[in-house]
Design brief:
The chain is of the alpha/beta class. 40% of the residues lie in helices and 32% in strands.
Amino acid sequence: MKRWIAVAVVLGLALSVAPATVNAADGKPRIAVLEFKNKADNQWWYSGGAAAMQDVFVTELVKSGKFRVVDREQLDALMAEKGLSVAGDLDPKTAIKAGKLLGVQYFLAGAVTEYGATTAGAHGGYGIGFSGGKKTFVAAANARIIDTTTGEILWADEARGEDAKFNLSIGGFGGGVSQDERMFDKVMKPVVQQLVASIKAADL
């Protein structure tokens, strides 16, 4: 009986540590994506650029397979528990302290430098009126990865993207794109994908 109890205890301990062993063996560093700073002067129509950029970064980093990424909600909960407040402008001393408390090797921080839309158009006509306009959606950001053991910036880059649609109306009938919020995804996501591709190519 004692022998079977001993075997059961050993087996239970082995099962309990197995996931941790697998995670340690995968060799992937743990990274947390901090809230991006909003430095976009043209963010007049859609105000969620910085928060959206953080969310897309988390998704794209997970898809890259290079890191174990801390979920945004989990990160917020951990920081609240530890009484931390860290964001885009992170100094080395704070990075080291926060990294130890949160158990992450890297922080990704950055800023949205451009996020909005510009419109150019013309109108006129003889008898039948017409109007045309070109709406250009733009997004730009910079980002950097900070090593929480040294406070050193290991990687930094920036990217920009834009997409334009033409809107034509003749005699009150027309098509195209006017205030289409979905267009932001078409410029924001490629910007993040460019930056993540740069991270994957870096020797981290």
